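Subject: design request, 540 residues
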């Protein structure tokens, strides 16, 4: 028990900052979501119109919750419950992999296993650590919702449902860490499972049966195959069904137990999924440092590009539905104009809003690409590269260049998909230009985060991952959700995503483009210049 206590305290101390950001961010999303609902859909008629439009369109149900009534609480659950569960799931999977496969990959697990703690106790400590994190997340989310004046029973059920999804994915993360040999592979597997189950839930909702009054939906059977579907079946603030939470808890505990059992069946630093055999000799395309960077990051870039293409096609195919909803509830159009900042018609506003989301996706891709430099340094593989004639400035520049190229690939996929959507719908030809301008502007904004990540890597190497992702999250909150949260209008201008060029009549309003270009050049120059005098900081 003393060894277990030491291991648990070590995990709590190590994750104190990361878990605080995840948990507080989730609670703030719940609190701010209520503010948006109460301001934008203040009347019963407004909420009825939105729900009727959502039930008539499967695309909305793919990315929203399960309609379960017209009260403020039920409508809030429809808007944000899937995303609260998504944040809990991401927090839990990363936690599980970090303290199992991540420690094993870094060589720390072997040292701990050599002590009386053995092989199983560290994993059990990780399970308890993950459960405690989700309990705190449920408690703070409940308090945030109760603080808005919503009923305590529905608020508690909302927090508990999100936490149950987190525990389910804690088990998925633990099991993935047993199958995959690297933490990167385990994280990738859990994210793909998360995306697949999120879409399965959406398909189940979209194929469901609406009520006669068009205010609620009975999901089809695929929704019951997903932890996110179990969360939504609780129907907070409506019927308040508790037992679906037990499905998520039971699923997580079973997978966690399986992970503990499987751990004793494999060798240290091994996985149940066999690694692919490499080529006897490298391709000529790997004869340069930037080609190596591309090889290390190409898989994730493809995934982000697929997300960009989906965003682009939605941007130009949902405008008709938004016109319908806005005609029934003008507040929707006002919100979209606040977020997008566009001055033209509603079609342009919708494209601008979706491409703001695209900019966030592209920035995430850039950060993940450049953060790989820190991972290479921490694991010691960067030292082998820098022992060759490759200088440290060129080495970092290759990561920045590939990060910016990744942004261009993601944006290009979105622009091409957006153009395809305009062509398939026979839309206004001016949308081709609007899509192109929005895409190019967001490409510049997202590239800012590539150079910011490089700058943080040079100045605060051990904090690279936490600070870089926090900057993206802050910019996304200010640029896309600030107007919904009631923040001052000037706060949005602090986000690169909110000051990109837009089409203004027959011309283009460049807005903050020149400042973004100046920041991009200054960040790239500063990070590379400082890298010349920086020592390597391996470990951690």
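Subject: RE: design request

Done. Sequence follows.
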């Amino acid at each position: 028990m003393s060894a277990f206590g030491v291991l648990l305290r070590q995990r709590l101390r190590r994750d104190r900052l990361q878990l605080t950001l995840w948990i507080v961010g989730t609670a703030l999303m719940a609190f701010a979501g209520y503010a948006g609902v109460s301001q934008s859909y203040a009347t019963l008629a407004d909420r009825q119109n939105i729900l009727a439009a959502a039930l008539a369109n499967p695309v909305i149900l793919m990315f929203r919750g399960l309609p379960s009534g017209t009260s403020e609480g039920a409508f809030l659950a429809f808007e944000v419950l899937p995303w609260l569960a998504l944040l809990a799931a991401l927090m839990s999977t990363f936690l599980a992999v970090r303290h199992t496969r991540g420690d094993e990959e870094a060589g720390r697990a072997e040292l701990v296993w050599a002590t009386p703690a053995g092989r199983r106790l560290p994993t059990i400590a990780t399970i308890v650590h993950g459960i405690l994190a989700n309990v705190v997340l449920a408690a703070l989310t409940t308090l945030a919702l109760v603080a808005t004046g919503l009923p305590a029973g529905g608020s508690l059920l909302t927090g508990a449902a999100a936490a149950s999804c987190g525990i389910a994915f804690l088990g998925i993360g633990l099991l993935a860490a047993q199958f995959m040999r690297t933490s990167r592979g385990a994280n990738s597997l859990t994210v793909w499972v998360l995306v697949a189950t999120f879409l399965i839930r959406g398909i189940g909702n979209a194929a469901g049966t609406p009520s006669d009054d068009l205010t609620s939906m009975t999901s089809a059977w695929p929704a019951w195959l997903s932890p996110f579907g179990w969360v939504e079946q609780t129907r907070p603030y409506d019927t308040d069904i508790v037992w679906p939470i037990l499905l998520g808890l039971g699923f997580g505990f079973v997978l966690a137990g399986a992970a503990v059992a499987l751990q004793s069946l494999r060798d240290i630093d091994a996985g149940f999924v066999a690694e692919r055999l490499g080529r006897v000799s490298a391709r000529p395309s790997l004869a340069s440092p930037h080609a190596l960077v591309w090889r290390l990051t190409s898989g994730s870039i493809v995934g982000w590009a697929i997300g960009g293409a989906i965003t682009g096609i939605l941007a130009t195919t949902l405008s008709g539905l938004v016109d319908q909803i806005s005609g029934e509830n003008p507040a929707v159009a006002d919100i979209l104009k606040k977020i997008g900042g566009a001055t033209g018609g509603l079609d342009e506003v919708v494209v601008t809003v979706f491409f703001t989301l695209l900019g966030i996706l592209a920035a995430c891709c850039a950060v993940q690409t450049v953060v790989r430099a820190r991972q290479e340094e921490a694991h010691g593989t960067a030292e082998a590269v820098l022992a060759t004639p490759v200088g440290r400035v060129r080495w970092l520049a290759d990561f920045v260049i590939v990060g910016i190229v990744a942004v261009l690939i993601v944006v290009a996929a979105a622009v091409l998909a957006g153009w395809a959507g305009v062509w398939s719908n026979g839309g206004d030809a001016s949308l081709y230009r609007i899509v192109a301008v929005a895409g190019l502007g967001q490409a510049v904004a997202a590239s800012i985060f590539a150079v910011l990540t490089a700058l943080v890597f040079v100045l605060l190497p051990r904090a690279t991952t936490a600070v870089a992702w926090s900057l993206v999250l802050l910019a996304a909150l200010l640029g896309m959700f600030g107007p919904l949260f009631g923040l001052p209008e000037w706060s949005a201008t602090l986000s690169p995503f909110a000051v990109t060029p837009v089409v203004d009549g027959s011309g283009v309003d460049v807005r903050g483009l020149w400042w973004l270009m100046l920041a991009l050049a200054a960040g790239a120059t500063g990070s590379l210049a400082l890298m010349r005098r920086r020592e390597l900081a391996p470990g951690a």
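The mean pLDDT is 84.
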